[in-house]
Amino acid sequence: MHKQTAEININRSMIDLVPEIKETAKGNILDWLPEGKKAAVCFTIDDIHPAKSSDGYEAGGDLEKGSLGLVKWLLDRHPKLKVTLFTTADWRELSPVPTRKFLASIPYVRNKVFLAERWKKGTMQLDRHPEFVNFLNSTERMEIALHGLYHCHKGPIIPVEFQNQSEKEFRKILSEMISIFDKSNIKYVKGICPPGWNAPDNLLNQLIAHDIKFVASARDIFTDISKDAVTNMSGIKGVPLLYPALIKDNRLVHIPSNFQATSKFERATQIIENGGLLSIKAHIIKSAFGHVALDGVDQTYMNYLDVLLTSLEQKYGDDLWWTSMGEITNHITTKN
Ligand SMILES: [Zn+2]
């Protein structure tokens, strides 16, 4: 439920990551493509949770009759395509912006309280929605990964769940998130896209402590494409825009997002011509309570991807590795 037009951008303590990352970016030292492949394509969708259209907005809960049905249509048309669905353990966000205007106007207090209504705890908890979990588990080429515990935070920047918490607080949040995933029997890979992109260092330490293998933090759909390009938009800055990279002393794989519904065809071909990973992002909720996502899953976006992917298949054939973030991470960690 991100409002794409109001980009959230908060300070992050990523400075200590930059030197090691630059090295990777400059030299592209990471051996990440399987033999015979010259570039790769992956597709990820954020904000998956069991909300149905009868709840006021749909986030995958209508299964094949809703947005996931449109995704399945695209998968059926492209038998090599895989999708990673970043799924939230117990989604509670109802509004990405403050609705409690009076509280939001009081300095100090506004940072200590939730500034919008939330779903009651447990309403969207994965283990309480077995039909939803079964659908995700049984649909071919749908890979599930992590997208936070509640997808909300106190204070004015609601969807950015990971902000200034201590490592101890992150430990608790991540343990709870993982225990809900495990309890629900959902099949998932050990990777996370932090809600609202932000991945502070305290979080990265705790991801490693919880055996999470990859983080997809940086999204940049503006920086020009070149081999040396680094991310400079949402999430971690200074990591390679076109390639996966190892961060945090090689203990975590970072995978960028560099393409969305509003990106031009040429951006995709430039990424591929540079031997990069075309990493396409979407959001499962097209509109909710007046907020419309520019890259929300709808028939128009899926049609655009259908045309784009068909053209890439014809132009590049077997040179392309059609993969997923989980698979990329597996490949990197066994090879490097
Ligand atoms: Zn999200």
Task: Describe this structure as you would to a colleague.
- The structure is a single chain.
- The protein is of the alpha/beta class.
- The protein has a single domain (20-335), classed as TIM Barrel.
- The chain is 29% helix and 13% strand.
- It has helices spanning 18-27, 67-77, 101-104, 130-138, 167-184, 201-209, 265-273, 299-316, 325-335; strands at 39-48, 83-87, 142-146, 191-192, 214-215, 245-247, 252-254, 277-283, 287-288, 291-292, 320-322.
- The strands form 3 sheets. Strands 1, 2, 3, 8 and 11 form a 5-stranded parallel sheet that branches. Strands 4-5-7-6 form a 4-stranded mixed sheet.
- Helix 2 (67-77) runs parallel beside helix 8 (299-316) and helix 5 crosses helix 6 (201-209).
- The chain is globular.
- The two termini are 36 Å apart.
- Bound molecules: zinc ion (ZN).
- Zinc ion binds at residues 2, 46-47, 147, 151, 159, 195.
- Zinc ion binds next to strand 1.
Largest sheet: 5 strands, parallel
Distance between the termini: 36 Å
Oligomer: single chain
Q: Roughly what is the average pLDDT, rounded to an integer? A: 90
Relevant terms:
336 residues, alpha/beta, TIM Barrel, four-stranded mixed β-sheet, globular, disordered N terminus, binds zinc ion
Element layout with pairings:
Layout: H1 18-27, E1 39-48, H2 67-77, E2 83-87, H3 101-104, H4 130-138, E3 142-146, H5 167-184, E4 191-192, H6 201-209, E5 214-215, E6 245-247, E7 252-254, H7 265-273, E8 277-283, E9 287-288, E10 291-292, H8 299-316, E11 320-322, H9 325-335
Parallel strand pairs: 1-2, 1-8, 1-11, 2-3, 4-5, 5-7
Antiparallel strand pairs: 6-7, 9-10
Helix pairs in contact: 2-8, 5-6
Bound molecules: zinc ion.
